[in-house]
């Protein structure tokens, strides 16, 4: 499904002012027309609301409690590690490391995924083993490798902090301090972590100079020759799909969650590309250090070819200039608004 | 939606219907499209013995499967343009998903044969 905009610029690509077909990368033929821009805006429109389960309607009290818990290191066994230690808002809600570091400085198997736009995701974790934020939230807390805080110890620990009781009562009246209310509060907070408006959004809205010509060419490649939008689709730049994209390694990813489905071996969740330039290194294991390296992997059709390799991964034959344009486009997805504030923790 | 039975079976059913004055209904095929990374239906009610024909009308591959008790199957990778029929033999409920695209969901209710 390619936009008419794509074809317009593809058709106009290499005509010089003299009308002679020029070699090399093409240029956008001009700003999208009103109808073309409307079509693009519809395709990249963000929903007005973040979806939520019926039993966890958002409220300021719930989001505030969740934010407080998220940044409280007392949720870890060591007392020095909060959710925000790895999901650091200053690093696009990740940690800038190739693989996460857990309890006792243990190096984890996978890179810390951003929580940006996680409220819209169909499945959580790189392997999609949780289907809701409520289901996901307690996993890293109780994992011995990560925050190492058994839930049967966490709840008494929180109850012993006088300042938490009124926060829980305001958020979940009559439900008390429990594993389910901790999970629901953390989920409520994470639903507020939504990517900010980026230059790409301003360009979609009609501000033609919000992104460079290189980025515009990159966008056309992104939706066209480079096939990125096959999976990095929509306003979050992900369709939540799982693919083996040819990253070397033994981690079976989704294949270990849904056993017996060949195409899911070595498959991982397609991540959002919002703010992506702020989250190097890349892939589920941090094995690609820069966006340019990521594009090299796709250009090769994957660095390793296994039977599970996604049918969508094929050699792209991109030129060096086209690769630069793709990076220029991805750099326009970085939000421009302030980050979340750090809460005052109860004592 | 279409009927699709081998000629012999159709004849046999017609004979039975004539003898019984109504008799059992024929098994039917129902085509479920995969288009824009969605199934063409969110829910469908069929009868035991009916088939769902999963047809990939997308430009990407899909991998339809179900792990629901009584209706466990996997179509495996379907490239664009491919289609595969799956029979639902037993009454019950099945959740059909695409392994690649987890937001594709189809609820199948299989009612007993009449």
Helix content of chain A: 25-40%
Secondary-structure content class of chain B: mainly beta
How many DSSP-defined strands of chain B? Answer: 9
Over all CA atoms, what is the radius of gyration of chain B? 15 Å
Gross geometry of chain B: globular
Describe the structure.
The complex is a heterodimer of chains A (347) and B (114). Helix content of chain A is 32%, strand content 1%. With 347 residues, chain A is mainly α. In chain A, strands 1-2 form a two-stranded antiparallel ribbon. In chain A, helix 11 (291-300) packs across helix 12. In chain B, strands 3-9-8-5-6 form a five-stranded mixed β-sheet, with no helix packed on it. Chain B has a four-stranded mixed β-sheet with strand order 2-1-4-7, with no helix packed on it. The relative contact order of chain B is 0.23. The A-B interface holds A 1, 122-123, 128, 230-231, 233, 239-243, 254, 258, 260-264, 267, 310-312 and B 36-37, 59-61, 63, 65, 74, 76-77, 79, 99-103.
Index terms:
heterodimer, A: 347 residues, mainly alpha, two-stranded antiparallel ribbon, 12 helices, 2 strands, 32% helix, globular, disordered N terminus, B: 114 residues, mainly beta, 4-stranded mixed beta sheet, 9 strands, 12% helix
Write the layout of secondary structure elements.
The complex is a heterodimer of chains A (about 350) and B (about 110).
Chain A lengths: L3 H8 L22 H10 L16 H11 L12 H4 L46 H10 L8 H9 L4 H8 L7 H12 L8 H6 L8 H11 L18 E2 L24 E2 L21 H10 L19 H11 L17
Antiparallel strand pairs in A: 1-2
Chain B lengths: L6 H14 L8 E7 L2 E2 L3 E5 L3 E6 L5 E7 L2 E8 L4 E5 L4 E7 L6 E7 L3
Parallel strand pairs in B: 1-4, 3-9
Antiparallel strand pairs in B: 1-2, 4-7, 5-6, 5-8, 8-9
């Amino acid at each position: 499904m390619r936009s008419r905009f794509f074809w317009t610029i593809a058709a106009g690509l290499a005509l010089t002012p003299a009308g002679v077909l020029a070699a090399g990368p093409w240029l956008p033929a001009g700003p999208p027309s009103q109808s073309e821009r409307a079509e693009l805006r519809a395709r990249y429109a963000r929903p007005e609301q973040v979806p939520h389960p019926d039993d966890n309607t958002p409220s300021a009290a719930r989001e505030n409690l969740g934010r407080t818990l998220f940044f409280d290191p007392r949720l870890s066994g060591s007392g020095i590690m909060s959710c925000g230690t790895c999901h650091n808002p200053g690093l696009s809600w990740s940690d800038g490391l190739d693989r996460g570091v857990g309890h006792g400085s243990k190096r984890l198997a996978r890179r810390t995924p951003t929580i940006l736009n996680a409220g819209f995701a169909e499945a959580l974790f790189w392997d999609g083993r949780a289907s809701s934020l409520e289901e996901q939230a307690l996993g890293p807390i109780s994992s011995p490798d990560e925050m190492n805080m058994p839930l049967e110890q966490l709840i008494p620990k929180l109850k012993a902090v006088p300042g938490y009781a009124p926060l829980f009562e305001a958020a979940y009246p009559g439900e008390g301090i429990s594993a389910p209310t901790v999970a629901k509060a953390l989920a409520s907070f994470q639903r507020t972590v939504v990517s900010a408006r980026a230059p790409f959004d301003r360009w979609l809205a009609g501000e033609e100079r919000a992104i460079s010509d290189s980025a515009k060419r990159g966008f056309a490649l992104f939706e066209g020759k480079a096939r990125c939008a096959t999976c990095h689709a929509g306003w979050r730049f992900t369709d939540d799909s799982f693919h083996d994209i040819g990253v070397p390694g033994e981690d079976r990813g989704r294949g270990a969650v849904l056993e017996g489905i060949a195409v899911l071996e070595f498959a991982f969740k397609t991540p959002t590309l919002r703010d992506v330039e702020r989250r190097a290194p890349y892939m589920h294991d941090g094995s690609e250090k820069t966006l340019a390296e990521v594009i090299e992997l796709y250009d090769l059709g994957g660095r390793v070819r296994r039977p599970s390799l996604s049918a969508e991964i094929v050699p792209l034959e991109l030129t060096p200039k086209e690769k630069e344009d793709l990076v220029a486009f991805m750099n326009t997805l970085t939000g421009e608004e302030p980050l979340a504030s750090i809460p005052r923790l109860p004592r | 939606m279409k009927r699709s039975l081998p000629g012999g079976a159709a004849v046999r059913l017609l004979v039975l219907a004539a003898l019984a004055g109504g008799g059992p209904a024929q098994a039917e095929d129902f085509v479920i499209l995969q288009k824009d990374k969605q199934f063409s239906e969110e829910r469908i009610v069929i009868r035991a013995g009916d088939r769902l024909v999963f047809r990939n009308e997308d430009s990407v591959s899909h991998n339809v499967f179900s792990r629901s008790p009584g209706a466990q199957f996997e179509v495996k990778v379907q490239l664009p343009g491919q289609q595969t029929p799956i029979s639902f033999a037993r009454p019950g409920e099945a959740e059909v998903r695409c392994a690649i695209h987890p937001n594709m969901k189809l609820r199948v209710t299989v009612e007993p044969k009449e």
